[in-house]
Design brief:
The chain is an alpha/beta fold. Helices cover 39% and strands 15% of the residues. The protein binds pyridoxal-5'-phosphate. The site of pyridoxal-5'-phosphate has 13 residues, from helix 5.
Length: 364
Amino acid sequence: MKIKDFAIERYFAEHEFTAKYLLSSSDCDGYSMQYVLDQASPPERSRWDSLTLGYTETRGAAALRTAICKQYTGIGEKDVVVLSPNEAIFSLMNVLLEKGDHVICMAPTYQALYEPAESIGCAVSFWLPQSEKNWYYDPARLQELVTPQTKLIIVNFPHNPTGHLPSAEDWNTIIGIAREKNIVLFSDEMYRALIHDPEDEIPSACDVYENAVSLSGMSKVFGMAGLRLGWLASKNAALLHKVEAFKDYLTICSSAPSEILATIALNNPDKFIGPNIKKILTNIELFRAFSESSDLFEFYRPKAGSTAFIKLKTETPALQFANAVVKETGIMLLPSEMFNYGTHHVRIGFGRANLPEILATFGK
Ligand SMILES: Cc1ncc(COP(=O)(O)O)c(C=O)c1O
């Protein structure tokens, strides 16, 4: 299969490890190995100390899948396959889709969520937000996009980059639209636990719809991107089985050290997620104050997740602006051109502890 370059990841490849400051990352700061191991129970610690570096189970170690199930209300070990997140998306699309199928995907979005479908030869329709209404995604517009050929609906809540999260009512409507025609709902929940107000929490798609596949992972919520570990959860056993078999052509199995470290974190979520949410909320307030005083950004408060999609007040196209900023100040921004969404926005990430220092430099 031929596939287009992944614009966001190519832009990160150019700047992430050379720019001094990252103001657009979607993950939270990585926790140290020592911090993770300090949270281990005695049996987990002894598994770590006696670990041998062989292959692991293709589906993921049993202890890891047991820990993953705690994230859901009705998911068992057999309903989970462990993969790296983009591997999971790529595998699912390959086993599910055929040339000519119709797919609906939210936009702007992470390119991995629609590019494999386009490469397979599917017709992809984009569900667009109302930017003037704080990036509201209207379920009525989703309904209008459904055709008799629609095989897959792809959503991502909390949404990267806008931070949109549907109300419980809208979430029910979205799931109802998929259920009515038995369409597979792929729900990218990479940012799911990064809820700013606990009242806003919505259930995982795989817990409420039997033909939904939920994606989650360790990068964003747990601050452990370096593990390269995520998973799919679904009650659609046949589909998960095909994904597991497809994985044989990719990584075959996950990394053994990553599996143990992820298990420790998943068994101690409060030690990882709480500090991340606190940092995000503090940083959103700092950025709000900065944008109100700087006349450069039109501030919009994300409802959940770790990012916001902010309008630039300058006439300069976002890519040109971001290139100039990284060159002159060492601050990396992610321009909306990388999301194939016009030239007026940049993504801001709130998961990094050095945001005050970055804003001080930006201010100068
Ligand atoms: C919506 C979404 N899905 C999937 C991923 C991939 O996650 P990971 O970086 O852990 O592979 C990302 C990463 O930015 C993302 O934003």
